[in-house]
Design a protein that fits this description.
Blueprint (H helix, E strand, L loop, with lengths): L4 H10 L2 H4 L3 E8 L4 E7 L30 E2 L4 E2 L5 H5 L8 H19 L19 H13 L18
Antiparallel strand pairs: 1-2, 3-4
Helix pairs in contact: 1-4
Length: 167
Amino acid sequence: MKLSTVGAIIQGFWYEIPKHFPFVELGEFVVMPNHIHGVLILNKNSFDENIEPIDIIDPIDPVETGHCPVSTNDASTNKPNSEKTICQKRFRNQGKNTVSSIIGSYKSICTKHIHAAFPTLNFEWQTRFWDNIIHDDEAFNTISQYIINNPLNWKDDKFFGEEMKPE
């Protein structure tokens, strides 16, 4: 894949994840024209739980990622979502050092920088993300090969050939 500037931002911040979440190692990763694939290897056995990860979410300019399911009423505030502040809507008790918190931080910082660089580009992530627990070496190798080969299979994607321009 030949990366656009947006693709380069997305790729660059992916490789920053272990600096902010020290228990994460990165497996294969690829930026596609309309999606990404990546493997996060969580190694909490060697991680000191007393060390706080450095959060890459900008608290001044939060970005809604909507990647965790939430009910229409929050028991902690007893308010419908429509009455919550932006921050109350954003934080959905995803838990510290979870895949959701890692991906949420990643999507947030990418979005912030893309919107700053391209204010007229209508960039947004899909609301959620697909995750898959890799249980053994065979599955790890199969998924890694899939990611490596994904650019070669782009021509078979249903979105191949569509122009992807800013609106």
